[in-house]
Structure formats: structure tokens, C-alpha cells
TrEMBL record:
Gene3D superfamilies: Amino acid/polyamine transporter I. The chain crosses the membrane at residues 20-39, 45-64, 85-105, 125-144, 156-180, 200-218, 239-260, 287-313, 334-354, 360-381, 402-424, 436-455. The lineage of its organism: Bacteria, Pseudomonadati, Pseudomonadota, Betaproteobacteria, Burkholderiales. It is found in: Membrane. GO terms for biological process: amino acid transport; transmembrane transport. It comes from Bordetella trematum. One of its GO terms (cellular component) is membrane. Residues 17-425 form the Amino acid permease/ SLC12A domain. Its main location: membrane. Keywords: Membrane, Transmembrane, Transmembrane helix, Transport. InterPro entries: AA-permease/SLC12A_dom, Amino_acid_permease_CS. This is Lysine-specific permease.
Length: 468
């Protein structure tokens, strides 16, 4: 059997798998714990920050959906940047995105290890993190249909938890929840809707935008479904409103029921949901939230490993990564080499946890701080150029960005403005600078690869096909 028979993905994902994978990727511990920091910063007006972030995601997903329906590809926006902007752009954003998800896996493994160690202290945290990492690598070795089924039910736990929270919180707001002291929506204006002024809301918005990255996973995974175009069309529309509902709905309930200056909101050992459930009179709130966070980080780890391995596979297909990363299992069609390589930072996190040096990992994580915005910027620029090209060729699009090109230009200007404000204001200055530095290094690597023809020729392995 020729080697080419072992470098192709087999597919098998269903629309419900795609929808849940994208939801799983974007809803992590940041919602259940980390959102408390933004609430404490901006007060109830943090709703505006989450609403702004949600609108940005809606527009970006619409642009990405337009390109993905026209040309489904497992490399998604990295492939489109390659075709629309140039090889250096696809190379850079592909590797930046891979770096983000691989580093995130290490952090998720660390968090899971800490939770399990708290429950069962007889075993070290690094041991639990190692077991989790090895187990989920095994899951990613499965046929993609089996993987999708596993991820569907895994992610469903946190989705159900959020829905229950929305129901209980809504009952408390309308005075129909019989337990706890939290009632009505008095906290929404009790100390002022915007107690720390508009500047705090802007800073919160900058922080909130990081939380939404992951919705774009659907366009990466759709290439492994039976009908990629239709799958993208359906899931892009549904994922956007579901994520906005889960985030904005949850935050609205919290700011209605819990004072924004509650000390627990900024306590990393407790967090948003813990404080809210405690106010609702639900016993064992800490245990419940830790269970939800545990399943959430495991689900995020799973989605991250899938996404990173497929991005490596796409980069390899285009000659921007070693060809060995195209290798897929004979029976499963899974890019197992990409799975293994994408797990390296998770094992690094295990080692740093075991040697009590996990603070070094935070330095690496800072370089991922604004990758979400760079990804969104590349998507917008790619859609702008690809749409103009397709229109010039007279191609009829099934799925279009609204008010083109004005909304596309608005997104581009908004993201550039956000990056400038981050540097000037200072709160997220290091994240912008470190991510820009990392991006600059990868850009240089991409340009060198392009100038010297490193990797496969651009017409090999399906790279840069003509736009349809």
C-alpha cells in the first residue's frame, strides 16, 4: 500500500459533533472562574463588554463561514490567509494558532491536576495531569467519528450545567427561587451600572475578547464531515448565538444577583459560578463548580489537541511543516504524528508542575495573550481579498458577509484600534508585545521559507488551488 494512502483524513464528523466541539473549545474555565475579574473591574456594565465581544465573534464567524463554505479545508483561516494574502501569512497565523492551543493544553492539564489533587491528595497533582494527558492523547488516536462522539458527551456536561444555571438564576431574578438570599436584579444598579467609569468597561472588553476564541474550530473540523459546506453553514449560525447566550446570559445573571465588589469574584480558588451558586443557597457550590471546571478543562484539552493536530496536518500539506506530520493511521485516518507533537507542551507542564516551576509556564502563556485578535484580523483581511477575487471571477457565493465591504473594514479598524489601546492603556501591554514578538519571529521564518523554497512546491499536495 502506498504511503499516500496514509496521509489522508477519513472524516466521519456529524453536525452535532461540530457544534459541540466548537462550543467546547470556547467555553472553558474562563467563564466559570476567570470572568469574575472582569465583573469586579467594570461592574454590571461588564455586560456591555461581553456583548461587544460577542458581536465581534458573530462578524468574524460570518466572514470565516463565507470562505469556509466556498472552500472547506482542514487548515481553515490559515489556508485562506495563504491563498488570499500570501504564504508568509498562512505560515505565521497557522503556527501562532498551533502554539496557542498547545500551550492551552498544558494549562488545562495543570488545572485538572490541581482539582483532582484537592479531592484525592494521596496522589500528586502532576501525576493526575500526566494521566489526563495520556488518556486524552489516546482519545485523539481514535477514529474521528469516535472522537467526535466522545467530545459530544464530554462537552454536553458543561453545556447542561450552564443551562441549569441560567434556569435557576432566572427563577431567582423573578423571585421564584425559594433558597438563598439572592433575589431580583437589584445588584444591577445598586452601586451604579458603571461604577468604575467607561474606561473600565473598555479594559474589560479587551480582556473579554480573549475568552471567545475557539468558535472558529467548527471550520477546522468541518473538512472531516460528509458535507463540509452544509455543515459549516448550519453550525456557524447556531454556534454563534449559543455561545453568546451562554456567556452573556450567565454574566447577566451573576451581575443581577451578586454585588460586583464581592471579594470572592477575584479569588482564583473560587470564581464566578461558585459565588453565584453560594448566593442562591445551593450547598456544596465549590464542589459542584470544581466538577464543572474539571469536565470543562478536559473537554477544552480534547478540542485543543484535535485542533492543533489538524493545523499541523494542514501546514504539512502546504509544505509549511515537516511532511511526517501528514502521517495518518491506516484504519483511523487520524494524524497521529501531529497529535503526539502537539502534546509536547502538555508534558512540559506536567514536568514543571512536578518540579514546582509552573510559574515559568506563565511566561510562555503571555505570548498567547492577543493571538485571538491576530487570528480575527487575519480572517477579516483574508475575507476582504478573497471576496474581491471571487467577485471578479463571477463566482456566486452561498453564504455571504453582511454589508460587504463596510462591516469587514469596520472589524479590521476595530481590531487595530483595540491593539493600539492595549499598548497605550497598559493593562495588556505585555501580552501585545510578547505576541507581536513571537509573531514577528514566525513571520521571518515564513518569509525565509518562501524565499528559499523550503518545503514542498506550492502546487503540491493541493496547496493554493484556484478559487472556486
Amino acid at each position: 500500500m502506498s504511503n499516500s494512502n496514509h496521509t489522508e483524513l477519513k472524516g466521519g464528523l456529524k453536525p452535532r459533533h461540530l457544534t459541540m466541539m466548537s462550543i467546547a473549545g470556547v467555553i472553558g474555565a474562563a467563564l466559570f472562574v476567570g470572568s469574575g475579574t472582569q465583573i469586579a473591574l467594570a461592574g454590571p456594565a461588564v455586560i456591555l463588554a461581553f456583548l461587544g465581544g460577542g458581536i465581534l465573534v458573530v462578524l468574524v464567524m460570518r466572514m470565516l463561514g463565507e470562505m469556509a463554505v466556498a472552500q472547506p479545508d482542514t487548515g481553515s483561516f490559515s489556508t485562506y490567509a495563504d491563498r488570499a494574502i500570501g504564504r508568509w501569512a498562512g505560515f505565521t497565523i497557522g503556527w501562532l494558532y498551533w502554539y496557542f492551543w498547545t500551550l492551552l493544553m498544558g494549562w488545562e492539564a495543570y488545572v485538572a491536576g490541581q482539582i483532582l489533587h484537592e479531592w484525592f491528595p494521596m496522589f500528586p497533582a502532576w501525576g493526575y495531569a500526566l494521566i489526563l494527558t495520556v488518556t486524552l492523547i489516546g482519545v485523539n488516536f481514535l477514529n474521528v467519528r469516535n472522537y467526535g462522539e466522545f467530545e459530544f458527551w464530554f462537552a454536553l456536561i458543561k453545556v447542561v450545567a450552564i443551562i441549569l444555571f441560567l434556569v435557576i438564576g432566572s427563577l431567582a431574578i423573578v423571585h421564584l427561587w425559594p433558597w438563598g438570599e439572592a433575589r431580583g436584579w437589584s445588584q444591577l444598579t445598586a452601586q451604579g451600572f458603571m461604577p468604575n467609569g467607561p474606561k473600565a468597561v473598555v479594559v474589560a472588553l479587551l480582556g473579554v475578547m480573549f475568552a471567545f476564541i475557539g468558535a472558529e474550530i467548527v471550520t477546522v473540523a468541518a473538512a472531516e464531515s460528509a458535507d463540509p459546506g452544509r455543515a459549516i453553514l448550519k453550525t456557524t449560525n447556531s454556534v454563534v448565538w449559543r455561545i453568546c447566550l451562554f456567556y452573556i446570559g450567565s454574566i447577566f445573571i451573576v451581575v443581577c444577583l451578586v454585588p460586583y465588589n464581592s471579594p470572592g469574584l477575584q479569588d482564583p480558588t473560587r470564581g464566578t459560578y461558585d459565588i453565584a451558586l453560594d448566593a442562591l443557597g445551593i450547598p456544596y457550590s465549590r464542589l459542584i463548580v470544581n466538577f464543572i471546571v474539571l469536565t470543562s478543562v478536559c473537554s477544552c484539552f480534547n478540542s485543543a489537541l484535535y485542533t492543533a493536530s489538524r493545523m499541523l496536518y494542514s501546514l504539512s500539506k502546504r509544505g509549511d511543516a515537516h511532511r511526517i506530520m501528514q502521517r495518518t493511521g491506516r484504519r483511523t485516518g487520524t494524524p497521529y504524528v501531529g497529535v503526539i507533537i502537539s502534546s509536547l507542551f502538555a508534558f512540559l507542564a506536567v514536568w514543571l508542575t512536578a518540579t514546582s516551576q509552573m510559574d515559568l509556564y506563565d511566561v510562555l502563556m503571555q505570548a498567547t495573550g492577543t493571538i485571538a485578535l491576530f487570528v480575527y484580523l487575519v480572517i477579516a483581511c483574508s475575507q476582504l481579498r478573497m471576496r474581491q477575487r471571487l467577485q471578479a471571477q463571477g463566482v456566486a457565493l452561498q453564504f455571504k458577509m453582511w454589508l460587504f465591504p463596510w462591516l469587514t473594514y469596520a472589524v479590521i479598524l476595530f481590531i487595530i484600534g483595540a491593539l493600539i489601546i492595549m499598548v497605550v492603556e497598559g493593562t495588556y501591554r505585555n501580552e501585545v508585545l510578547y505576541t507581536s514578538l513571537l509573531g514577528g519571529v514566525i513571520v521571518v521564518m515564513g518569509i525565509v521559507a518562501q524565499v528559499f523554497g523550503i518545503g514542498k512546491p506550492r502546487d503540491a499536495a493541493g496547496a493554493n488551488p484556484p478559487a472556486r
